[in-house]
UniProtKB/TrEMBL annotation:
<dbReference type="Pfam" id="PF00107">
    <property type="entry name" value="ADH_zinc_N"/>
</dbReference>
<dbReference type="InterPro" id="IPR036291">
    <property type="entry name" value="NAD(P)-bd_dom_sf"/>
</dbReference>
<comment type="similarity">
    <text>Belongs to the zinc-containing alcohol dehydrogenase family.</text>
</comment>
<dbReference type="InterPro" id="IPR011032">
    <property type="entry name" value="GroES-like_sf"/>
</dbReference>
<feature type="domain" description="Alcohol dehydrogenase-like C-terminal">
    <location>
        <begin position="178"/>
        <end position="304"/>
    </location>
</feature>
<dbReference type="GO" id="GO:0008270">
    <property type="term" value="F:zinc ion binding"/>
</dbReference>
<dbReference type="GO" id="GO:0016491">
    <property type="term" value="F:oxidoreductase activity"/>
</dbReference>
<keyword id="KW-0560">Oxidoreductase</keyword>
<dbReference type="InterPro" id="IPR013149">
    <property type="entry name" value="ADH-like_C"/>
</dbReference>
<dbReference type="InterPro" id="IPR013154">
    <property type="entry name" value="ADH-like_N"/>
</dbReference>
<dbReference type="InterPro" id="IPR002328">
    <property type="entry name" value="ADH_Zn_CS"/>
</dbReference>
<keyword id="KW-0862">Zinc</keyword>
<protein>
    <submittedName>
        <fullName>Alcohol dehydrogenase</fullName>
    </submittedName>
</protein>
<feature type="domain" description="Alcohol dehydrogenase-like N-terminal">
    <location>
        <begin position="25"/>
        <end position="130"/>
    </location>
</feature>
<dbReference type="Pfam" id="PF08240">
    <property type="entry name" value="ADH_N"/>
</dbReference>
<keyword id="KW-0479">Metal-binding</keyword>
């Protein structure tokens, strides 16, 4: 089969590799029908994720058809159409029993495209198939469901739920890429007073309006702190969601937050950021971090099926499965291409 293989920072190729086989009783082999590229994959290619080593197949999101299952798989069957989650869950360890699947210590967590071969391939081996895949509901497309492999639950759980968004809140989302847009969409479910999207790219600010932001700010032209304080009688945002993964955007969130507010960090950081405790310690500010757990995926699937969330709008570019190198170029140059999510299909 063919797959996207990582060969160190800045190096990847679409090359022929061995097709995966069942290695454990709980494995499934899934034929990848629809797959995408994540911002985390770009972080890996920058060298930000040291655990990813030369020869690893990238990717942690897919929708596909089950081709083979191990003898211990009970609820997933050959021929099933499934969502392959970015998080693998053993289902039995302490963290899985608490619903913190991203922290699984039983062999799961974020392993696809990280510690084991991932989904940017013609086939993928999925460990713990019963607890790491989701049946695709009738009446929805592969593309829609694919958005719930990662960005949907990430923005919702790590941004909106960790940030404790409540009715009437002013929510500032720093970074209007796919995860930031997911956070905007999720925040709107809780009836905030205002959602403020902050980004340096005007194209992404335009997208933020489509996803529910009622105020957009480009920091190259306007001061986000001044605008947010103008909405809040000088206090600052109730919730600030960091959705980029660089020091400046985290520090921006800390400057935006009101006393008693919550900064929810979602972005993948490859370097340190300054934490101004000399300013924050007295303000009763909560700072949360997190890797997505995907405990919300069943809820989001129900909302998708009921047409309460629109995930199709994330997809801006489509490619054939063999056009991965072109798709990566398009996604990595989003400022020029206006790409949100690229989708590759058989």
């Amino acid at each position: 089969m063919y797959a996207i293989v990582y060969h160190g920072p800045g190096a990847k190729s679409w090359e022929q590799v061995a097709k995966p086989t069942v290695q454990a009783d709980t494995d499934a082999i899934v034929r990848v029908d629809t797959v995408t590229i994540c911002g985390t994959d770009l972080h890996i290619l920058k060298g930000d994720v040291a655990a990813v080593t030369d020869g690893r197949i990238l990717g942690h999101e897919a929708v596909g058809t089950v081709e083979q299952v191990g003898p211990g798989v009970k609820n997933v069957h050959v021929g099933d159409r499934v969502l392959v989650s970015c998080i693998t869950a053993c289902g039995a360890c302490r963290y899985c029993r608490e619903g913190q699947y991203g922290q699984c210590i039983g062999g799961g967590g974020w392993i696809l495209g990280h510690k084991i071969d991932g989904t940017q391939a013609e086939y993928v081996r999925v460990p713990f198939a019963d607890t790491s895949t989701f049946a695709v509901p009738e009446g929805v497309t592969d593309e829609e469901v694919l958005m719930l492999a990662d960005i949907g639950p990430t923005g919702y759980e790590v941004g909106v739920l960790n940030g404790r968004v409540s009715p009437g809140d002013v929510v500032a989302v720093v970074g209007a890429g796919p995860v930031g847009l997911s956070a905007i969409m999720g925040a709107k479910l809780f009836s905030p007073a205002h959602v403020v999207a902050i980004d340096l790219a005007d194209a992404r600010l335009e997208a933020a309006k489509q996803f529910g932001a009622d105020i957009t700010v480009n920091p190259s032209r306007e001061d986000p702190v001044e605008i947010v304080r103008g909405l809040t009688e000088g206090l600052g945002a109730d919730v600030a969601i960091e959705a980029v993964g660089v020091a400046s955007t985290f520090e921006q969130c800390a400057a935006l937050i009101r006393p008693g507010g919550t900064v929810a960090n979602v972005g993948v950081h490859g370097g340190p950021a300054t934490l101004h405790l000399e300013d924050l310690w007295i303000k009763n500010v909560t700072i949360t971090t997190g890797l997505v757990d995907t405990y919300s995926t069943p809820t989001l699937l129900r909302l998708l099926t009921a047409h309460h969330i629109d995930l199709a709008r994330f997809v801006t570019h489509r490619f054939a499965l063999g056009d991965f190198m072109e798709a990566y170029d398009t996604f990595a140059n989003a400022a020029e291409t206006r790409a949100l999510k690229v989708v590759l299909s058989r």
